[in-house]
């Protein structure tokens, strides 16, 4: 049995491909570095993160990219003995404009080496590359129309101006021939996320519609000719929860068809799981998969009937059982950062952290303020469970209130809770809780302690976070002493897509990890002995 979501936590816009008996899913990473997550499975049930291919400055530099900019909607395919990855790097998403640049990288295997990117176009986002059986390749993306009333955080139908298609010449590394708008979408609007699939002489086009909120949907159309005209599915939407507010998987849309070696058909899609009684999804947009069937009329539908996605789905024959969640502990004993972790925007990680300066510790170099779009020292992992504990130990000796280091529950510059070791005049080293409570666009700080808590000038400080649904409690201790609660119960639901600016303006998910800043410019270092993430 497959249990959805198959990729819990922030893993949106799933593109799936199969090579022999191996399945690969690529998902968006937005401003988190390195870019694009690729998971691998042999049974569609259990998945393992195996690669983030955009991992060097020649491929990706997101310094200055806004929150929820960066890598949108990658598409992963395999043809001609190569893996092909196409993706968008969004440099602006505010106002009427989207500055969205599309690229292609290739590799002989999923592990790489991945090439430097080939620039393709900037007419819109959500690109896909289709390899036709005659050897020709076709590049598709949605077209963005800035001459409309759609703005960042408030999308409008005219802004999503159809699906463009143009032939891609792989030898020349460029688009060739005419550009054609092949699909305007359905009346539901906001058409994006195109993928093509060919079967029995038909070209099937799946798109995402309705915006990536609670009206999201997978829409299908087909044509005998790749450039159309495309007729809509008689049901219009193959997957959606827009009319099922009590379904456990909400915001369902944006995915891709895959066929098993035995001929079974599945369709990935993004989804979210709002907290019970609260329309907020701290785990962000996750990846799910549904079993499908081809009808006698030649149209694809969910195997269970209707468009509403299921949590439990029949797995291919011989598949294993879903693995139980386990505690993950990192002691930072090696020279490389574990794959669980990412950082923000910069392709120069040695500027913000080191695993060799103080072996056995993760050293963060305090740089710009928490929430900076350029260079902040924040290393974190995805929140994958509604209930979890996180724990670390930090050695840090601040000398000014401009220096801070600690444990953070983070979404973006407008949504975070930060338990920080810092310094106050007349008190010395202290604990303080710094939060931004969804204050878009000012980013106003709130302080969880009316008075900072003095903790002495020496000694390692243990920091812990306990999240239970919408509640966050911070704890601390000196050395091996007893854990003590610090500060009030905080609103963990703020660390979600829907909080603050709202569901159409924030597209990532909750992270928990370690952060440091030093706005004095001295680069004060903080050493973290270990990090534990414990599902509850």
UniProtKB/TrEMBL annotation:
This is Glycoside hydrolase family 43 protein. Residues 329-534 form the Beta-xylosidase C-terminal Concanavalin A-like domain. It comes from the Bacteria. It comes from Aquibium pacificus. It holds the Pfam family GH43_C2. PANTHER family: BETA-XYLOSIDASE, BETA-XYLOSIDASE-RELATED. InterPro entries: ConA-like_dom_sf (IPR013320), GH43_C2 (IPR041542), Glyco_hydro_43 (IPR006710), Glyco_hydro_beta-prop_sf (IPR023296), Glycosyl_Hydrlase_43 (IPR051795). The keyword Cytoplasm does not apply. Belongs to the glycosyl hydrolase 43 family. GO terms for molecular function: hydrolase activity. Keywords: Glycosidase, Hydrolase.
């Amino acid at each position: 049995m497959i249990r959805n979501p198959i990729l819990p936590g922030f893993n949106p816009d799933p593109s799936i491909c199969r090579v022999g008996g191996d399945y690969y899913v690529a998902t968006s990473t937005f401003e988190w570095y390195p870019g694009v997550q690729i998971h691998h499975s042999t049974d569609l049930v259990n998945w393992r993160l195996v690669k983030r291919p955009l991992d060097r400055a020649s491929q990706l530099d997101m310094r200055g990219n806004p929150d929820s900019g960066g890598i949108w909607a990658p598409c992963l395919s395999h043809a001609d003995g190569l893996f092909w990855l196409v993706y968008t790097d969004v440099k602006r998403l505010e106002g009427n404009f989207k500055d969205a640049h599309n690229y292609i990288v290739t590799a002989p295997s999923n592990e790489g080496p991945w090439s430097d990117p080939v620039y393709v176009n900037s007419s819109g986002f959500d690109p896909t590359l289709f390899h036709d059986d005659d050897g020709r390749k076709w590049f598709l993306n949605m077209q963005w129309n800035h001459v409309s009333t759609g703005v960042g955080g408030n999308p409008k139908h005219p802004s999503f101006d159809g699906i463009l298609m143009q032939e891609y010449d792989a030898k020349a590394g460029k688009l060739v021939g005419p550009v054609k708008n092949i699909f305007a979408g359905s009346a539901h609007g906001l058409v994006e996320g195109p993928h093509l699939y060919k079967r029995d002489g038909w070209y099937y086009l799946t798109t995402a519609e309705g915006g990536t909120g609670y009206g999201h949907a997978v829409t299908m159309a087909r044509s005998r000719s790749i450039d159309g005209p495309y007729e809509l599915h008689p049901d219009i939407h193959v997957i959606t929860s827009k009319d099922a507010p009590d379904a456990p998987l909400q915001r369902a849309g944006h995915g891709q068809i895959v066929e098993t070696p035995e001929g079974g058909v599945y369709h990935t899609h993004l989804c979210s799981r709002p907290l019970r009684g609260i329309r907020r999804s701290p785990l962000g947009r996750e990846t799910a998969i549904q079993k499908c069937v081809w009808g006698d009329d030649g149209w694809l539908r969910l195997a269970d009937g209707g468009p509403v996605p299921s949590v439990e789905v029949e797995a291919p024959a011989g598949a294993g059982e879903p693995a139980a969640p386990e505690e993950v502990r990192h002691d930072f004993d090696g020279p490389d950062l574990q794959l669980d972790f990412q950082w923000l925007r910069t392709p120069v990680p040695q500027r913000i952290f080191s695993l060799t300066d103080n072996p056995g510790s993760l050293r963060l170099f305090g740089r710009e303020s928490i929430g900076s779009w350029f260079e902040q020292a924040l290393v974190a992992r995805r929140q994958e469970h509604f209930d979890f504990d996180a724990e670390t130990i930090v050695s840090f000796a601040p000398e000014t209130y401009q220096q801070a280091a600690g444990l953070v529950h983070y979404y973006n510059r407008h949504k975070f809770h930060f338990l920080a070791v810092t310094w106050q005049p007349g008190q010395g080293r202290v604990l303080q809780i710094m939060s931004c409570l969804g204050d878009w666009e000012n980013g106003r700080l709130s302080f969880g302690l009316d008075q900072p808590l003095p903790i002495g000038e020496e000694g390692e400080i243990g920091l812990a976070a306990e999240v239970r649904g919408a509640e966050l409690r911070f704890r601390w201790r000196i050395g091996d002493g007893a854990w003590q609660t610090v500060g009030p119960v905080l609103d963990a639901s703020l660390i979600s897509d829907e909080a603050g600016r709202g569901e159409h303006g924030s597209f990532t998910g909750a992270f928990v990890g370690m952060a440091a800043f030093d706005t004095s410019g001295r680069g004060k270092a903080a050493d973290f002995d270990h990090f534990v993430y414990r599902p509850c």
